[in-house]
């Protein structure tokens, strides 16, 4: 979450400086010294090729376009609720997190509002993808609910030790979960959890391993990426019950609808396409050559189009995708 908070951060100082630069040929003096000054224009010329400054301008443009198009669709209450949830999550450290991200409470609130606007536009576009063809494709990839007992551990050696005990004749898997699992949500219930392929409670690799088991089957130790960088979690799964999959995809229509919409909202390419369509409809023109690269993947400039590097495209696409999810994660 902290990384997402940092991505595309817009500081009030940076925004004010960039906007002010266009007001005159040199702008006001920012710094004075004996025999010289640094003007807004000089500062602008110095920083405009900086990737962070370019990202700020892109974010400002997206904010203005989406506010004009969808501003009435996002209420102040939605934004306030998202801010309150974020404050609750971070507690007393919230202001410190904002400060480290180069934001104030007001600039973060504005960023959340932009996130909500883009999120609305992406959802609206995703609803056009609810075709029978896409429903059937989602159905083919869908696995209905299973019930399993799951033991989560932080050490592979400990996981192997627990697995050996679980494989012993007459072993009580539920008790092993209660005694050893680090998953506070399920351990008290003997690790029992019900989920389908669209659920997000477990890593995909764990769900896949569970779906492959027969009833009463026990998996090997499953390694899944942890919540922290360069860390792993280790799982042991015992399947308790399987649900027979209906041959009629319409029996799962509501579930499949959620699957399709979620996939589209998490698809960076799809999000980029939505943003591109809105920027082009707003007739955005890039007036300074320095900013063409950051806008190229969204709009075509009237002047010679420059080739966007792979790294720049990846960074911008990631930021756009994160914009739609920051406030909800």
Task: Compute the number of strand runs.
Answer: 6
The CATH class of the domain at 144-244 turns out to be Alpha Beta
CATH fold field value of the domain at 144-244: Chitinase A, domain 3
Trace the largest sheet across and list its strands: 4-3-6-5
CATH architecture of the domain at 144-244: Roll
The major β-sheet equals:
4 strands, antiparallel
Please bin the fraction of helical residues. Answer: 40-55%
Rg calc: 25 Å
**Overall pLDDT level:** 86
Beta-strand share of residues: 5-15%
What is the structural class? alpha+beta
Order of helices and strands: HHEEHHHHHHEHHEHEEHHHH
Question: How many H/I helical runs?
Answer: 15
Shape: elongated
Provide the low-confidence segments as ranges: 1-23, 302-329
Distance between the termini: 7 Å
Summarize this structure as a short list of keywords or feature phrases.
329 residues; alpha+beta; Chitinase A, domain 3; 4-stranded antiparallel sheet; two-stranded antiparallel sheet; 6 strands; 51% helix; elongated; disordered N terminus; disordered C terminus; isomerase; lipoprotein; Foldase protein PrsA; Foldase_PrsA; membrane
